Amino acid sequence: MSTVAPAIERTAEETVPVPSVTGTRKRRRLDDDGIAGYLFLVPWFIGMLFTVIPFGVSLYLAFTDYNLLQVPNFTGFENFIRLFEDPKIVKSAQVTLLYTVFAVPLGLVAALGVAMLLNRGVRGLPIYRSVFYLPSLIGGSVAVVMLWRAIFGYEGIVNKALAVFGIEGPGWVTDPDWSMVTLITLSIWGFGGSMVIFLAGLRQIPRSYYEAASIDGAGAWRQFRSITAPLLSPVVFFNLVLGLIGSLQVFTQGYVFSGGSGGPADSTLFYNLYLYQQGFQRFDMGYASAMAWVMFVVIAAFTALNFLVSKYWVFYDD
Amino acid sequence: MKTTTTIRIAAVSSVALAATAITGCAVNPAGSGGTDADGEVTLTVMAWANAEEAANYEAAFDVFKEKNPGVTVSLEYSDVGSYFDKLNTKYAAGSPPDVMFLVGRNLGEYTARDALLNLDDYAEQIDFDAMDQSLLEANRVNGNTYAVPTGAGAVGIAVNTAILDEYGIALPDDKTWTWDDFAEWSRSITEASGGEVYGSMLNMGWPPIVTTFARQQGEDLYTQDGELAVSEKTMQAWFEKVVDYNESGVFAPAELADDTGAFSAEQSPLGSGKIAATMVPANQLSSYDEVLDGKAVLVRLPGETEGERPGMSVTPVLVWAAAAGSAHPEEAASLIDFLTNDVDSYVGREAFLGVPINTEVAKELGETLGSADQQFVEYVADLSAEEHDPLYLEPAGASVVSDLLATITTEVTFGRTSPEDAAKNFMTQAADALAQAG
To answer: Which residue of B has its CA nearest to A34?
Structure first.
C-alpha cells in the first residue's frame, strides 16, 4: 500500500473518517473530540437510567415463578434448569440460527454489491440511495410484514407471476418448509441500511489506489481482494456485528407473520417470539425472564467471539 | 483520566443502587375502573371485535348507561389474535378491565390464578335463575360461577348452496351422514367443477372438531379431572383422515388456509367462492350468509350417528367474566346481568354471541332476527332438544394443548410427519402440558 503515489488529490468526501469500531486513539487528556463523544453518549445514558430498573426486575423475576396475576415467588434456578430441558427452546434456537445464518451474510452481500454498483458514479445517486434505504426503515414494521404475507400468499402476486412462467409456486406463507424463506427474503430486502454505510466506506477509499493498481496490471477481482476488501473490513465488521445482534433478536416479523403462533408448525418460532409467548400468553413471566437473560449471555458471547476473530481479518490502517 | 473515571464510578454506582433498590417488588392486581370526583363510575370492558361489532357493543352500553345513570361503560377492543396478550399485560400492570370476554377454555387458567370475580357473591345483581342452568353448570369451576355465557352456540358446517346448485349436487342428510359420506360428497364437488371449486376445507387442528370426533368414539378430549381422555388410536384415525382428505381432493389445498384468523368473511375461502363448505362457529352463519347473498345453510358435522354416541353439543360461544380486583364489582355484575337477561342489550349484537341463555329473552329476540340468525337459533334449539352428554370445562394447560394440536396437524397436512408418529407425539406432549400446568 505504501507504494501508492500520495500526490493525487482527495475529494472532499474522502476526508470524512470511517467509523472505527475499536477505539484507537490514545490521548492523555480529554480533547474536543473526547468531550463530543461523551456528550453524544448522554442521551443513551439517560435512557439507560430508565431501563436499568426493568433490567434489575427482569433479572430478579428470572429466579421466580411469576404468572402476571399474583405476587412472584422465589424458585431459584428452576427456570434455568427447565430452559435447558425444553425441546421448544431447541426448536426456537434452531429457527433463529437458521434465519441468522442466511439473512445476515446474504444481506451483507446484497448491500455491498449494490454499494459497489452505486460507487461507480451513477447519476442521481442520492435518489437511488434513498430508494434502497427506505425498505430498511419500514421493513420491520407491522404493515410491511402483513403486506409481505399478502404478496407471498398462495394466491398472491408472487405466485401469480410464477404462474406466467408455468411454475406452481408453493405456499410461501402456510407451508412450514417455505415460511422461513419468505422471512429471510424480507430481511434481505431491507439491505439499505448496511448499504448506505458500505457506500460511505467505499468512498473513503482513494481512487488513486485503484488507478495505481490497474496501472500495475491488476484485474477487477484482484483490485477487490487487495484494495476494497481490506480497506472496507472495519465497515463489514461493524455491519456484521450489528446484523448478527439484530437477527438473533427478531420478533415483530415472526409475530405478525404467524399471527403470534410461530407457525406454521413452529417454523417461524423465533426465540424472542417463544419468549413472548411464555411471558404473555402462558402466564410464565419468570421463565420468559430467564430466557431473556440466557439470550443476553448468548448474544454477548457471539459478539465477544466476533471481536476476537476480527483480529485476523479486519484491517485498520492506523 | 479524572473525568472518565468519575463518570465511570457514577455510572456503575447508579446501576448498582437502582438494581438493589427495586428487587422483590410485588404486583398488586387492582382493578382499573375509575370513580370521578362527582361519584360517576366508569367500567372498562374488553372484547375482541372489528369496528362494526364494536359499534354494536357500544350501542348496548349506551342503553345500559340510560338505565343506570352515573355509570359509564368504556369499551376497549382489539383483534382476536392480540386480545389475550393485551389482557394479560393489563393484568400484569395491575389494571385489568372490569368486564371481559373469555373463552370457556381460559376459565381454568384464570381461576387457578385468582384473577376472576366470584359472581355467586353478587346474586343480588345477577339473576341466575332466569338462565339456562345446564350451561351455567358446565361453566362452574369448583362449584363457583366465575363466568356467564354470552349465549349458546355450537359448531357447524356452513355450506354455499349456490355452488351446489351450479354443479347439480344435492346436500345429504346432515343428521345421519358419516365421515365417508362427507368425504365422498366433498370430493364430488371438486370433481364436478373440474378443480375450479373445492368441496370443502375443515380446520382439522381446531379443538372443537377433534373433541366432537373423540366424543363420537365414546371418548372426549379431556376428562372432568383435566386429564387427556382421547386415545392414541382415535388421534391416529383422525390424522389419517387429515392425510386422506388432503390428498384425495376432499379438501382445498392447505396453502389456502387462513392460519392467523385475519381474514374477514369476504376474504375467507368460503366467502370468496373457492370452497363450498367449511366448519364455522354456528353463530357466525349470518356473516357468511351476507357475503354469500343468503345462500348459506348450516349443517351438522358428519359422523353423529356413526360412532358410539353423537359428538356435538351445545356450548357457550363466549363468556362474560369480571376481574377479581375490580374497583366496582357490583356495577360490573349489573352489567353482566344486563348483557344476559335484558332483551334491550341485544340491540345490534342480536344473536352474534350466541342464542341468549335466558329463554324468555331468546324467544323475544327470535321474533326480530334475520333469516340466517333464525337458522342458527333453530340449529341450536334442535341440538339442545336432543340429549347430549355435557361438555366439561377445559382444564388449565388447554391452550398449550390447542397450540400443540394446531402444530401437529399442520405437520401432518404438509407430510412432514406420519399419522402414527403424530398421534404418539400428541399424546406424550399433551400429557406433559397438562401435567405442567397442573
So the answer is: B4
Question: What pLDDT sits at residue A11?
Answer: 47
* Phi then psi dihedrals of residue B418, to 5 deg: -85, 155
- Which DSSP category does B358 fall into? B
Residue B16 forms contact with A (CB below 8 Å): no
Shortest distance, CA A97 to any CA of chain B (angstroms) = 21
Model confidence at B119: pLDDT above 80: yes
The residues in B 404-423 lying below 8 A from A, measured between CB atoms, are 406-408, 410-411, 414, 416
Task: Assess B5–A contact: CB distance below 8 Å, yes or no.
Answer: no
Contacting residues for B135 by C-beta, under 8 A, at least 6 apart:
B149, B152, B314, B315, B316, B357
Distances (CA, A) of B373 to A28, B365, B368: 82, 10, 10
Which domains does chain A carry? 85-310 (1.10.3720.10)
Q: How far is A263 from chain B (nearest CA, A)?
A: 7
**CB contact (8 A) between residue B255 and residue A59:** no
| Class (C level, CATH) for B164-314+392-437 | alpha beta
Asked if B62 contacts B335 with a C-beta cutoff of 8 angstroms, the reply is no
User: Is a pLDDT exceeding 60 seen at residue B383?
Assistant: yes
Q: What is the pLDDT of residues A138-153, one digit of tens each?
A: 877 888 988 898 888 8
- Asked whether B63 and B344 are in contact (CB, 8 A), the reply is yes
ipTM associated with this complex: 0.74
Instruction: Give the model's pLDDT for residue A13.
Output: 45
Superfamily of domain B34-153+316-385: Periplasmic binding protein-like II (3.40.190.10)
**Whole-number mean pLDDT of chain A?**
86
pTM: 0.79
Contacts of B114 in chain A (CB under 8 A): 69-70
What is the C-alpha separation between B206 and A55, in angstroms, rounded? 39
- For residue B261, what pLDDT is reported? 56
Of B156, B364, B370, the C-alpha closest to B277 is B156
Q: Is A21 exposed, middle or buried (0-12, 13-18, 19+ CB in 10 A)?
A: middle
Q: Give A27's pLDDT tier (boundaries 50, 70, 90).
A: low
Distance from CA of B92 to the nearest CA of A (A): 5
Query: Which of the residues B88, B263, B416 would you substitute to probe the A interface, choosing the one with the greatest number of A C-beta atoms within 10 Å?
Result: B88
Nearest CA in chain B to A170: B255
Provide the CB-side half-sphere exposure for A243 (13 A, CA).
29
Least confident of A286-295, B365-374, B411-420: B365-374
pLDDT (tens digit per residue) in B215-260: 999 898 888 888 889 999 999 999 999 999 988 888 988 877 765 5
Contact with chain A for residue B14, Cβ under 8 A: yes
User: Which chain A residue's Cα is nearest to B10?
Assistant: A45
pLDDT higher than 50, residue B269: yes
Using pLDDT thresholds of 50, 70 and 90, give the confidence band for residue A19.
Answer: low
Nearest CA to A139 out of A241, A242, A246, A239 is that of A246
Look at residue A1 and tell me whether its pLDDT is greater than 60.
no
Domain ranges within chain B, ordered by starting residue: 34-153+316-385, 164-314+392-437
Same fold, B34-153+316-385 and B164-314+392-437: yes
Here the cell at position A210 is 485503484
Contact across the interface for B259 and A265, Cβ inside 8 Å: no
Shortest distance, CA B254 to any CA of chain A (angstroms)? 8
